[in-house]
Design a protein that fits this description.
By secondary structure, the chain is an alpha+beta fold. It contains four helices and six strands, in the order ααβββαβαββ.
């Protein structure tokens, strides 16, 4: 998983992070549920996980998704399968909203999210710097049709 995260960092279009966190730091920042890994044989193809967006109890059903696919396995449906799985499992856990912030240059990720019911709800201009260059992000969300509707 760390290698795939590092490939995302190296792409320059996956995260503002400069290095992959330790397992302890990563584990502490993600929910213990709704973590999925795609494996073929003994190879990890990709992973998906959810992070809480707030510690306040009123936001317990609002999360942010991270989905990373290895360089050699992009465009083969791995991301779609993982994102679908995390959507299904999140609803079983009572999660009603999944957010995602994506660099506009990562067109494949934006299209993937939109194809699975995410809609653009914002555009953050110059939200953060990466190597002294301001970057924008597209902010997408998916609202459950079964959880949090009443």
């Amino acid at each position: 998983m760390k290698k795939i995260y590092e490939e995302g960092i190296a792409s320059g279009h996956a995260t503002f992070e400069r290095e992959a966190p330790t397992w302890t730091a990563w584990d502490a920042s993600h929910l213990k549920v709704c973590r999925w890994v795609a494996i073929q044989g003994d190879r990890v193809l990709g992973w998906v996980a959810l992070s809480p967006t707030s510690s306040r109890c009123v936001y317990r059903g609002v999360t942010e998704v991270s989905v990373y696919i290895g360089c050699d396995d992009r465009g083969n449906g791995v991301g779609r399968a993982l994102l679908k799985k995390v959507i299904e499992s999140s609803e079983q856990e009572g999660i009603w909203t999944i957010h995602s912030g994506i660099f506009p240059e990562n067109k494949a990720s934006v299209a993937l999210h939109q194809s699975l019911g995410f809609r653009q709800v914002g555009y953050f201009e110059r939200i953060g710097k990466m190597k002294d260059k301001w970057r924008d992000t597209i902010y997408l969300e998916r609202r459950s049709q079964v959880v949090g509707i009443n």
